[in-house]
TrEMBL record, chain A:
GO terms for molecular function: 4 iron, 4 sulfur cluster binding; metal ion binding. It comes from Flavobacterium aquicola. Gene3D superfamilies: Alpha-helical ferredoxin (1.10.1060.10), NagB/RpiA/CoA transferase-like (3.40.50.10420). Residues 297-327 form the 4Fe-4S ferredoxin-type domain. GO terms for biological process: lactate metabolic process. Residues 442-454 have a biased composition (Basic and acidic residues). This is L-lactate dehydrogenase complex protein LldF. InterPro entries: 4Fe4S_Fe-S-bd, 4Fe4S_Fe_S_CS, FTHF_cligase-like_sf, Helical_ferredxn, LUD_dom, LutB/LldF, LutB_C, NagB/RpiA_transferase-like. Residues 442-467 are annotated as: Disordered.
Automatic annotation (TrEMBL), chain B:
Residues 97-194 form the LUD domain. This is L-lactate dehydrogenase complex protein LldG. It comes from Flavobacterium aquicola. SUPFAM superfamilies: NagB/RpiA/CoA transferase-like. InterPro entries: FTHF_cligase-like_sf, LUD_dom, NagB/RpiA_transferase-like.
Length: 467, 196
């Protein structure tokens, strides 16, 4: 479903920005969600302690994940859950397909799972004749439009109700031009109810898996994960191994943080704990690595594995809000996606850590205290060093480093630069200089600060007075 | 050849931090001076749920007769409500519940900070029963409302269940232009009977 050609973030953002009204709307809508998060967080006096506690639990998990995984598997198996291990996306897809084949199932209903987006599971299954229907409303909308989700929590946030109306008219036969969200949602409810009632396999994501009990928790507002799982013979739950938490009581911490950080709700409508399959039915859990163990070994970046996928960093990010999720060409967009993606493919995702102003807002809202903006900055250094950034950027950076390292060169370059900006603006403000895209020329100062200081500092003034 | 499980675990062992980070103490998070009942009601309203304070099952029966359409299929797992709801469905094919209008069950307890109610398969009759009907009603004892999720998990402790879920309000979505619509795939409305 995702296109093979990758457009760099800045170019995709430029396209997204062509429709100013739409960008403004996108920006404001996500900011509204961010404000709801703030309001919700401020109602909890111990919010900061909650974040710190969550962060410490996740740090504990990362430092002991080997044992927790073994503990989880043992307990899940005791509960009657079948556990699979997938080293990479391909193996994950093969496992899911083999479970369906074994049960002779050709149609599957699926609730939200960013991991299956990461693994491109839908494409894989479709190519093998399996019909997959996404049941989260936002995901269903983008699936019908043949688009990937643009946000991990709000998959269709880039679309207006007019777009949804068109899509539903075309695929579900709703009235042309009826843009009432109530009407459109009701139509999707009827369409998907038929799906839930006829599918023998349901796939869900996993929000948290508990080592102590071998159960896993899936959070939704719509109830779609439950409708699928409780009506199907086979429930397949896919998780990155970092979804583990040590004990059941730790769910109390994460369930308090997740929805408040995501949408400002006190909790999702449903927080479902799956411990054992129904009699005669099957639950499979697929534990996926796909680069995570490598990220675990990158000391500076391993904390990205603390992420609970709330999306708060996206809603607050001034770049995400104005460039849209698709411009990140990765299953997880925004700031967190930009520190996860280079680990998966440095070459393809070298642009993403640069899609940030490093303002730090992401770090401030992160419920598990990931140092997101620091990691973005560190990835830039790694990517330049490893030669993955475009030539122009590398040369510019190297030149700047040389200039900044040598005071005399700095002075000369400064002087000539001021002269050029003033007298030959075309030399700097042209198509080759990306810095001038959508920026106005600043007024050129007469002199450098150093020159000004020489004239105006106390000692200089003193000298002047003496003369 | 090593299995994927072995190779993943080996790589993790090699790459995870050498020093163990201790687990934090959760006790300080449990402090609360919430008026749990008031908070419960306020939050429930704010997320689209409704409540009725009742002192007996007879009152619930009267409420159901007055407010729900009892000509339609109403399910329950509570013998006390047999006058207005059907008890004979828990062994049926779960798909056959698709025409249920309403279900009434009793929660183990509720949580004031988010109005969630804890139900497990032992009191749901069938796992799908609290998701598939058009409307949902859940009874909770007034004394069984705890302040926060930490107290909730203290209360759950080592409880055995095959499936359990916190339910907070009716099912909902805002996936179309952030417009809130109640009744996505699950119940369109939730009535909580606060008993006691």
């Amino acid at each position: 479903m995702s296109s093979n050609k990758t457009i760099p973030h800045s170019e995709a953002a430029a396209i997204f920005n062509k429709n100013e009204e739409r960008v403004n709307w996108h920006d404001e809508t996500l900011w509204f969600v961010r404000e709801k998060r703030d309001k919700s967080a401020h109602q909890i006096p111990e919010w900061e302690l909650l974040r710190e506690t969550a962060s410490q639990i996740k740090l504990n998990v990362l430092s002991n994940i080997h044992d927790y995984l073994v503990e989880f598997e043992t307990n899940a198996q005791k509960n009657g859950i079948i556990v699979h291990w997938a080293a990479n996306a391909e193996e994950h897809n093969v496992i899911v397909h083999s479970i369906l084949e074994k049960n002779n199932i050709k149609q599957m209903v699926k609730s939200k799972s960013m991991l299956t987006e990461e693994c491109h599971l839908n494409d894989y299954l479709t190519e093998r004749g399996i019909d997959v229907i996404d049941s989260d409303l936002g995901e269903r909308i983008v699936q019908l439009r043949n688009e990937p989700p643009s946000h991990i929590v709000l998959p269709a946030i880039h679309l207006k109700k007019e777009d949804v109306s068109e899509t539903f008219h075309e695929h579900l036969g709703t009235e042309k031009g009826n843009i009432d969200p109530q009407y459109l949602t009701e139509s999707a409810r009827h369409h998907l109810r038929d799906v839930f009632l006829t599918r023998k396999a349901a796939l869900t994501g996993v929000n948290f898996a508990v080592a102590e009990t071998g159960e896993f928790v899936v959070c939704t507002n719509e109830g779609n994960a439950d409708m699928g799982a409780h009506l199907a013979d086979v429930h397949i739950a896919c998780m990155g191994f970092e979804k583990l938490i040590p004990k059941r009581e730790h769910l109390g911490v994460f369930l308090r943080l997740l929805a408040r950080s995501a949408t400002g709700q006190p909790i999702t409508t449903f927080s479902s704990h799956f411990k054992k399959p129904r009699e005669g039915k099957e639950i499979h859990v697929v534990i996926v690595d796909n680069g995570r163990s490598e990220q675990l070994g990158r000391e500076e970046f391993r904390n990205s594995l603390k992420c609970i996928r709330c999306g708060a960093c996206m809603n607050t990010c001034p770049v995400y809000r104005r460039s849209g999720g698709h411009s990140y060409h990765n299953a997880v967009a925004g700031p967190i996606g930009s520190i996860l993606a280079p680990n998966l493919d440095m070459k393809k995702n070298a642009d993403l850590p640069f899609a940030s102003t490093l303002c730090g807002s992401c770090t401030n809202v992160c419920p598990v205290k990931i140092d997101i903006h620091d990691q973005l900055y560190k990835w830039r250094q790694v990517l330049v060093k490893e030669g993955y950034t475009p030539k122009a950027k590398t040369i510019a950076m190297k030149t700047m480093a040389a200039v900044l390292a040598n005071p005399m060169v700095f002075e000369i370059v400064g002087k000539s630069g001021r002269f050029a900006m003033k007298n030959l603006p075309g030399l700097v403000n042209n198509k080759l200089n990306k810095w001038y895209d959508q920026r106005e020329m600043p007024e050129v100062p007469e002199e450098s600060f150093k020159e000004w200081y020489k004239k105006n500092s106390k000692s200089a003034k003193g000298k002047n007075d003496e003369q | 050849m090593m299995s994927s499980k072995e190779s993943i675990l080996q790589k993790i062992k090699q790459n995870q931090p050498k020093d163990l980070n201790e687990l934090p103490n959760l006790e300080p998070l449990k402090e609360s001076n919430l008026d749990v009942l008031e908070q419960y009601k306020t939050i429930l309203k704010s997320i689209g749920g409704d409540f009725a304070e009742v002192s007996s099952y007879a009152e619930i029966v009267a409420f159901v007769k007055e407010n729900f359409d009892i000509s339609k299929r109403i399910l329950t797992t509570l013998p006390e409500l047999s006058e207005v709801a059907n008890l004979e469905w828990t062994n049926d094919d779960p798909h056959s519940l698709q025409n249920a209008e309403q279900i009434l069950v009793k929660a183990h307890f509720g949580v004031a900070e988010n109005s969630a109610l804890w139900v497990t398969d032992e009191i749901m009759g069938q796992r799908v029963s609290t998701f598939i009907p058009q409307y949902l009603a859940i009874i909770v004892n007034k004394k069984d409302i705890v302040a926060k999720m930490h107290q909730a998990y203290d209360r759950i402790g080592n409880q055995e269940y095959g499936f359990g879920t916190f339910i907070a309000g009716p099912s909902k979505t805002a996936d179309i232009e952030q417009s809130l619509v109640l009744g996505a795939h699950g119940a369109r409305g939730l009535t909580v009977f606060i008993l006691g």
